[in-house]
UniProtKB/TrEMBL annotation:
Gene3D superfamilies given in the database record: Ammonium transporter AmtB like domains
Name the UniProt record assigns to this protein: Ammonium transporter
InterPro entries reported in the protein's UniProt record: Ammonium/urea_transptr, Ammonium_transpt, Ammonium_transpt_CS, NH4_transpt_AmtB-like_dom
Keyword ATP-binding: no
Subcellular location: Cell membrane; Membrane
Length: 438
């Protein structure tokens, strides 16, 4: 992989980072307070994305399952961060073999006072933890309203350690197989969005459809929640993409601009397709389109020019829009279209990264880079799809995956959490439940 391009310098900390080591370079790295401050803010922005996802998903589901849907995102924060400290980070970012790292940084041992490039290693650990958190949370949108909460937590723990961390190592870790081949993934198109989208589709297959799926319409219960969640995601995604430069520099600035350009183009494209099909431009469509644009540009944001980012957004939104229209052909009840919006857009974005990397001088020659990107996509699809199927079957041997039919029909907030998002008022309207107050 060429390392002379300024857009590839962000990989240097990943190549050299291991427990107890600093960036291998001619001069000893020096902590930069500006870079450190920016990366702490970026990590906080990415953390904020997961509550944003909870609102986005929660608004799209039924009112009687809103808490369970949102809880799947929130529990991912606690679950994955604990696992990341214990072993997830070490499996992803320490030296091991081309497919997974070792356990030299188990419990984050050996990282005190170490640097990752110009930032403390602990800051890099925290930043990457936020990626691992939202990757798991994304999957939940496919299996809402029917998966047992305990089964989701167990599957999520196994998925984070055995699928996410090894894939992150292959793409970003020192000696990673796909990284050594020159695969480009600036902020997680393959590691997060393809992985989550494919895993979500497999989970939908294994669980089976919701009761009444295909016979009754599932209407979003709170569109303002959807818009709020989408807005938070866009805001947090600035840290997600621009933060992946691992410094406050020109590459971060490029990622900021390309992220917004692709997202704006994707949102307009989605509304155009809605109108072209004889419908009206909808708020849910606008929210979905902008999320798809964010997904599509994620692997490319630091490697392509702003004008190329507009094309990435347009093509990503077009592919995902039509994937949603024909999702019944998959015969899987992917409830919130996680595969169409994250898997498909992630695949398109990963391939277009190879197609447009030349616009900034990054990567290999056109056809060679496109071939490497296609291989990275294939590996991500096969590894995450097969791995998720095995893990779900394993969890199914230990406990039931689905709630009972009665719980599913009535909504699973009460049965899973002994709470509900809304209570019936005397006027028959829904009002928020007040917990622990007058």
């Amino acid at each position: 992989m060429p390392t002379t391009s300024p857009h590839l310098k962000r990989f240097l900390p990943l190549l050299a980072l291991s427990a107890g080591t600093a960036l291998a370079a001619d001069t000893k790295p020096v902590l930069d307070s500006g870079d450190t401050a920016w990366m702490i803010v970026a990590a906080a922005l990415v953390l904020f994305m997961t509550p944003g996802l909870a609102f986005f998903y929660g608004g799209l589901t039924r009112a009687q399952s809103v808490l369970n849907t949102m809880m799947m995102s929130f529990v991912s924060i606690g679950l994955v961060f604990v696992l990341w400290v214990l072993g997830g980070y070490s499996l992803a970012f320490t030296e091991g073999n081309p497919f997974f790292g070792g356990l030299s940084a188990f419990g984050l041992s050996g990282l005190a006072d170490q640097l990752s490039g110009t930032i403390p290693a602990y800051v890099f650990v925290a930043f990457q933890a936020m990626f691992a958190i939202i990757a798991l949370a994304l999957i939940s949108g496919a299996i809402i309203e029917r998966m047992r909460f305990g089964a989701y937590v167990l599957f999520g723990a196994l998925w984070s350690l055995l699928i996410y961390s090894p894939l992150a190592h292959m793409v970003w870790g020192p000696g990673g197989w796909l990284l050594s081949m020159g695969a480009l993934d600036f902020a997680g198109g393959t590691v997060i969005h393809i992985a989550a989208g494919v895993s979500a589709l497999v989970a939908a297959f294994v669980l089976g459809p919701r009761i009444g799926h295909g016979r009754t319409a599932h209407v979003p219960h709170n569109v303002p929640f959807v818009l709020l969640g989408a807005a938070i995601l866009w805001f947090g995604w600035i840290g997600f993409n621009a933060g992946s430069a691992l410094a406050a520099n020109q590459t971060a600035a490029l990622a900021f601009v390309t992220t917004c350009a692709a997202t704006a183009a994707a949102m307009l494209t989605w509304l155009m397709w809605e109108s072209a099909r004889g419908g009206k431009p909808t708020a849910v469509g606008a929210a979905t389109g902008l999320v798809v644009g964010l997904v599509a540009i994620t692997p490319a944001c630091g490697f392509v020019s702003p004008w190329a980012a507009l094309i990435v957004g347009i093509l990503g939104a077009t592919a995902s829009f039509w994937a949603v229209q024909f999702k019944q052909a998959l015969q899987a009840d992917d409830a919130l279209d996680v595969f169409a919006c994250h898997g498909v857009a992630g695949i398109v974005g990963a391939l277009l990264t190879g197609a447009f990397a030349w616009t900034t001088g990054a990567g290999k020659p056109f056809w060679e880079q496109l071939g490497v990107q296609a291989l990275a996509v294939l590996v991500s699809v096969v590894f995450t799809g097969l791995g998720s199927f095995i893990l779900l079957k394993l969890v199914g041997l230990l406990m039931p995956l689905r709630v009972t039919p009665g719980q599913e029909v009535s909504g699973i907030d009460i049965s899973s959490h002994s709470e509900q998002g809304y209570a019936e008022t005397e006027s028959g309207l829904s009002a928020p439940v007040m917990i622990g107050g007058d």
